[in-house]
Amino acid sequence: MRPMQVVIAGASGFLGSHLSTRLTEDGHDVTRLVRRRPESAQESEWQPDRGQVDADLIGKADAVVTLAGSPTAGNPHSTRWARELRESRVHSTEVLARAIAEGGGGAAFLVGNGISYYGDHGEDVVTEETGSRGGSLLTSVTRDWQAAAEPAVAAGSRVCVLRTAPVMDRRHPPMQMLKPLFQVGLGARLGSGRQHMAMISLRDWVGATALLVADDGASGPFNLCCPQTPTNAEFTRTLAAALGRKPLLFAPAAVMRRAAGAMAPELLGSINARPDALLARGYEFSDPDVCAVVAAGLG
Predict the structure, then answer these.
(1) Spacing of C-alpha 220 from chain mean position
(2) Whole-prediction pTM value?
(3) How many whole angstroms separate alpha carbon 268 and alpha carbon 280?
(4) What is the maximal distance between C-alpha atoms in the chain?
(5) Taking a C-beta distance cutoff of 8 angstroms, is the pair 220, 160 a contact?
(6) For residue 110, which of 70, 61, 47 has the smallest C-alpha distance?
(7) Neighbouring C-alpha atoms within 13 Å toward the C-beta of 239
(8) Which segments of the chain have a pLDDT < 50?
(9) What per-residue confidence (pLDDT) applies to 254?
(10) For the stretch 261-298, what's the b/e string if a residue is b when 16 or more beta carbons lie within 10 angstroms of its beta carbon?
(11) DSSP assignment, residue 115?
(12) How far is CA 65 from the centre of its chain?
């Protein structure tokens, strides 16, 4: 594997910090984009709200990764939160996509995104070939997020769209919030529990993304999820058992719709996702099913 010059936006976040560490360990030169005065040679200031980024840095990069965006955990009834959720992702991606295009499209562009892109597909298996449907908040945001990378696509850059499922780790939502609830016996099945709930372990998310950074033949959308997607009921039983509890509660769908607001479709909708494109690139999952993902997340 040849050493690469990699630029990461969102490197201070949970996923970005772990990816930065992995890429550095793999021998790559990682520069983190920060919104303050740089404190080392491994940092570069950018101001996406003003469209400012170091064009020379982007022009010399082998790969640019953007994971920037406001937290998805927030007040689902707030229009301000919803606006920031969308704008923080779309604007930052547009700035980097234009910079890559203006630099001749030489840098690969890995664009963060979400498995919510697909919308509710019930029992149907969802692959990278499946279309997006529905108008829920996160589905709409992920469409705009992906479209923001179009300048880099048009310039001939190698673009990978990272359709990421929830990353299950005790230090990161949603497991960070679910673990204490399940520990005191308040873990609950959501609605019928029959909806498929895509997920991935932290080590598989990092490993898969690192592979896509280095793989010159990888482009297009990639589902970052474990190969065997569980239902919500299966996940609930597995997490409860791992914590020595019994899942006795359930949250009725009507209550969830009122309480979760704009996020209700993400909790009650079903995305039976498969990582076909990732498997085709030769990635081997450490945690292929819900038992392994939960064990890794709690470990």
Answers:
(1) 15
(2) 0.95
(3) 30
(4) 57
(5) yes
(6) 61
(7) 32
(8) none
(9) 82
(10) bbbbbbbbbbbbbbbbbbeeeebebebebbebbbebbe
(11) G
(12) 12
Structure-derived torsion over alpha carbons of residues 107, 113, 119, 125, reported in degrees to the nearest 10: 70
Measured CA to CA in angstroms, residue 139 lies from 117, 126, 217, 267 at distances of 5, 14, 28, 13
Domain harbouring 103, CATH code:
3.40.50.720
Domain count, the chain: 1
> Per the structure block, which two tokens stand in for 11?
């490197």
Range of the domain at 19: 5-298
In tens, the pLDDT along 115-161 reads 999 999 999 999 999 999 998 999 999 999 999 999 999 999 999 99
Determine the pLDDT at residue 128.
Answer: 98
DSSP 35-101: SS---STTEEE-BGGGTB--HHHHHH-SEEEE-----S-S-TT-HHHHHHHHHHHHHHHHHHHHHHH
Nearest-angstrom CA–CA distance, 241 and 220: 38
